[in-house]
Amino acid sequence: MKSSEVRKKFIEFFKNKQHTFVSPSAVISQGDPTLMFTNAGMNQFKDVFLGTGSRDYNRAVNSQVCIRVSGKHNDLEDVGRDNTHLTSFEMLGNWSFGDYYKKEAITWAWELYTDVFNIPKDHLYATVFEEDDESLELWKRHTDIDHSHIVKCDAKDNFWEMGKTGPCGPCSEIHVDLKPGDDLTSTVDQALLDTERFTELWNLVFIQYNRDENGELKPLPQTHVDTGAGLERLVSYLQKTYSNYQTDLFSPILEKIEAITGSPYQDNIEGMAHRVLADHCRTLVFGIADNALPSNEGRGYVLRRLLRRALRYSQKLGIKEPILYKLVDTVIDNLGDYLTHLPERRDFIKTVIKAEEESFLKTLELGLQLFSDLSEKLKKTKTKVIPGEEAFKLYDTFGFPLDLTEVLATEQGFEVDIKGFNNCLDKQKKQSRESTLKKQKEDLSNKPSTLTNDHFSELNLHLSEYVNEARGGEARVLNDPLEKVAMARHHSVTHLLHQALRDTLGDHVQQAGSLVDIDRLRFDFSHFNALNSEQLKTVEDIVNKNIKHNTEITVGNMTLDEAKDKGAMALFGEKYDENNVRLVSIGEYSKELCGGTHVKNTGEIEVFKIIQESAIAAGTRRIEAIAGRDVFNSFESQEKNKLITLIKNRSVKMTSLGDDKDIQKKYNNLDSLSIDALKLLGDESSKDLKRIEKTSQEGKQKQAGSQIEAMLSQSIEANNLKVCAVVTDSDMATLKATADQLTANIPNMVAILAGVSGDKGFFVVKIGSQVKTIKAPDLITVLTSVAGGKGGGRPDFAQAGGASIDKLEMAIVSAKQKLLK
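Now predict its structure.
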């Protein structure tokens, strides 16, 4: 029986018992801070069991994707070693909320397994809680199970609790004998612990008590049923494979891995790499489809760790290039009929996984080399412990997860100083928090929201046509309270913004949160990169063109299916009434399920302007914007006043500068817009600027000279080259001066220097006159391929900007390795 048939038969069986099919929830746990991922089918019904929520149905059924790779379920290192452990699986479940109870749950479970799935009755065993005589009698009286196959167990095995306090109750498990006919070598209760002989197929939980803070059990006013059966485990039994990985849920993925690697799968320890790749890819697909993206925090780190572990094992199969993204189609083709959101996000999932793979493979190659160098160094000193500082450097600079360092260390006969690593990590977190607080304080200072060279000229030219041509708003303002109109205006424009982002960036964009007010809006959405100025301009254009079209906005109530047939876009993570939803349509351009207040047509929005775009979490961006002519005019006026005040304040401070070092510091703090604007403020300011520029250039030459000696001490010689490759805290002008002096004094010098400007890094590469085989732009290509950014130049000199600061050192190492090969 195919896995799709097993799932369908389970769901249809309970639908015929008057259960409502409830769509599975996202694997990102919504509204429950205690969970990183959805780890059980009952998660979305937790509020019902706690008595804080309700549903308009009292019987439910579904198959829920669960991820168990954190917290008490963290058995990641076991995944792949055997045929059973998985990081994600589907949980078949049926629920009763104050409706039927033990009798129906037990008899229906028996009916489904024996009559529908045709499992031999004499192969099945049932366990009950040792104090639950009611369940024991129900099994005996209302099923024809062999009474000797009913086993009493203690609370450890057969009493379910949500937590230290709260709803709880006894449970009854159904097990199957994998070796029927063989004599038991122990009592039944002991035999059930033999996982090679027996496997659990279903757990029926009867929630009837509430455990209070004193640990006492009090009867609940209503009793509930919560059951869970692992689809993969049930399918493996029904398909007589007794291995999760040889079911049709995994075999297509394994076959794809075989085709890519040329390595046949073996259902023993030799097949571990295949199993790791297959399992981890599935979990990555589930997580990314629901907007959990690889990162260094929380659930994002869990996914990143899975991907990196999989790539580590792919190398054991001889694969040193991205492979997981090539498995995505197979995963989705196998599950997309039920998990219908997966095909919709196919391209996005592949893009994210491939990018993450490419990034880590560069890291892995560098990290492995650095680990090899470190291990050789430690062996010479006969040291058996890798210092925490070194492990942290691998983690922080080269993206090596600690567990991977531990694996490599074990292979080489080392231990890792975990305490020292954690101390370094805590120190970094503290510095990060302090840096964030400092930045937040700076952002609250008297500073324009968006300082770009063409800000005001583009603001006037680019938006004037929309301000002038917008129609319809004045009538609404005259007839309705001003604040209500302003609120509705900002709400309606979020719908246009949402669709414009999808048009510009792709269908993977989904709303992740929003705030609408009378004078602003905030819109959070799923995307893994910052939007560049061209993309922001495109989004603004699309929204404003829709505003200018004066499109009617209509609202209608209907069933959820009817709304979906009309093309409605449901918001990620939201739960909707199947029978009554509210569809807000902006012509044919935008259709969203929404309960908020809106204007009657897009013309009433008048004008739209993006104020800021930023990251709020891994894979989640935020746009802050304004709408409406009055709000726009007020904002424009405030920004101009802020800019003038800022420049005047800086000008006053600079005229009083006397010390050359202080002058240079002030000059370095000026952004390009302030310098340009300063030139326009009059003769006095221009004189100040010229004085500052002259003094600054002299200072940079002095600073460059002082750095030469320190840099030369870090340089290395090989292949008739002297290579100076370092990361500094100097600015671009200083590094150029430094590179000039290095190559002028040492003709076989290759200077590869990195620095920081604001929140981005940059590179300067200078080639000495005697070096004929190395081209500066080629080294810039190596550097930016690791750290990002763009650049170029001539054969003897090149530069690049826009690099990721946390990857500068990794990029420098990569360029150095290229020269020394």
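The longest strand covers residues 198-211.
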